[in-house]
Write a structure and sequence with these properties.
Layout: H1 2-23, H2 25-44, H3 49-64, H4 67-76, H5 79-82, H6 97-102, H7 104-118, H8 128-134, H9 137-156, H10 166-189, H11 203-233, H12 238-244, H13 246-266, H14 270-286, H15 296-323, H16 330-364, H17 374-384, H18 388-418, H19 424-447
Helix pairs in contact: 1-2, 1-3, 1-8, 1-9, 1-16, 2-3, 2-7, 4-16, 9-10, 9-16, 11-15, 11-16, 11-18, 13-15, 14-15, 14-18, 15-16, 16-18
Amino acid sequence: MGTVFSLSATVFQQPVAEISHAVGRKPAFLLVLAVFSIGSVVAATARNIADLLVGRAMQGVASGGSVLSAIVLTDLIELRDRATWLSVQNGIQALGLRWLFWINLPAIAISAAGLGLLLGFDRPDGGILPNLKKIDWWGIIIFTPSAVSLLAPITMAGVLFPWSSWKAIVPLSLGFSGLVALGLHQRYFAKAPMFRARLFDRWVTICGFMGQAVFGVCVNMILYYLVVYWSGVRGFDEILTGVMLLPETFSIPIAAILCGLTIRKTGAIRWAMFVGWPLTVASLGLLWLMDTQTPLAALIVINAGVGLGAGTIASSLNVALLATTRREDNGHAMAMGWLAKSAGMCLGIAIGTAVFTSRLQVQFGKVPGEEMTAESFLRVLNHVKGDPAARDAIVHTLRVLWIICCGLSALVGLLCCLCKYPNINDLRKEQQAQELQEKHCADSRMLD
């Protein structure tokens, strides 16, 4: 269920962003809300799993359009004020699944009304139809099935079928081949490429995209497998497990807000890299201490450190991407950053599943007659539940995941810290001076 949603959201982010450049933000945003509403109704009225999957897929497609909120802010707000923007993800517990889908509709209605009344129609230059013809449709046609073919086995292998299965190998091969074809198309044939080459002509911007991807990998992997720790190792029930995730889920938005406000005030970005990445790496390393006897107070502090570091990174990376690209490319840079983060989240699931199941195969041995997957592991775990040796095995397996996250964060964090970032207040002054110069030149031409 989650795979269908995340896969749809990741694949359709870039096409939705491209269409919004052609038809304008407002029509694209309203279309996204309409699709999400239909998906919510389909999911809420589903009588079987197939209908529910269709509804979740439609919600995922529309969720890919959530990148438009960041692009709209990029269009409307100056760079120094964008630093305070934050997307807060809320979860609802203890409500029935049908009510969970119905509750989206009032929020969507309010959002649609606000967009219709308050957001102007930014009619693109040259008209909608000519701009639609300029869209890199061949790029979208190549990218969409290639991304699905690549990400589907990445998120499903090790869960529904083993990595050695043809169900994983064939789609992965086709997906990689499709991405190679996409690169050739973007480089030699596309007149208005979906992935602008100049977004990758500066090392600082490339590091920003890498940071977004690693953020997605680590946050998704940690949140997924902290559930395994709290429920499988410490024996907490579902409610307590959700409560014990609050150190991350609560501290990430707080840190992001504080970081954004500080960047807005000082204009400096680099300090946030030097605070966020080391704090994240140190806290991820301390996750090694999580075992069956670690005091809860220490666990809360360690996990809060992970959240505070991740929130600081999330906010600073968004601003860094916008500050290191041309203003006319800001929307494309934001869309690319969101794509990198979403792809990283899918990779986080894949890496975590592959490592977790392979390490547990070493610990428990292969289930007779089948590969060790997450499903077969659950069957093994039911037989050893309450066994201290089994809990210790899970602890040692999780430590491998924590170290992987720590190593990835250390490597990419070092690269991000070595980069030089412009002061956004200085950029604002330069932009104002350039606008005054352009206005003066225009006035001079009128007088002539």
